[in-house]
Hints:
The chain is of the alpha+beta class. It has helices at 6-20, 29-35, 53-65, 104-113, 129-139, 142-154, 160-169, 175-182; strands at 25-28, 45-49, 69-73, 84-89, 92-98.
Amino acid sequence: MESPLPILSAAEQVAAILERHRVDxxxxxxxxxxxxxxxxxxxxxxxxxxxxxSTLRDILTSLRQAGFTAELREPDGADxxxxxxxxxxxxxxxxxxxxxxxxxxAIEDAIRAATLVVRPGSPLKLVPLPQLVAxxxxxxxxRSKADILExxxxxxxxxxxxxxxxxxRYRLQGLExxxxxxx
Length: 183
């Protein structure tokens, strides 16, 4: 059996620490994009969570006690995220991205609906495609729009009605404009 990439092993260790703090996580970002056939030239792992700043501080302490190098970036009033912990090491960069108090429904729904994992036996759940599209719409910007277009081009059997319903439920704007570019 092939050994997992060091960053996946680190992410699994981080997921275990999150679990001790009763924080569920779902893989978002480049690894999730790759799982849906869109590979970008980045090697970091992003874990989406819903954790308030106090919990993020506790997680930071636990990460450091476990030997990880970690820094917390707390949100300000204008920040679209609820805080980010950067975990670094020889494995690369792993980010714990909190949507608490900002966009928690997408993460809650993703955790509940996730059926895929990054590799057999891994606790790392992959964000479902509808929530991944929603997170990209929430992020905004040209890169996120391009990501959505590529995701949908590379997943022609994606249920667009389900994606629309998810984005409508979250009151996100702009999906129809992106879909028009697919035509």
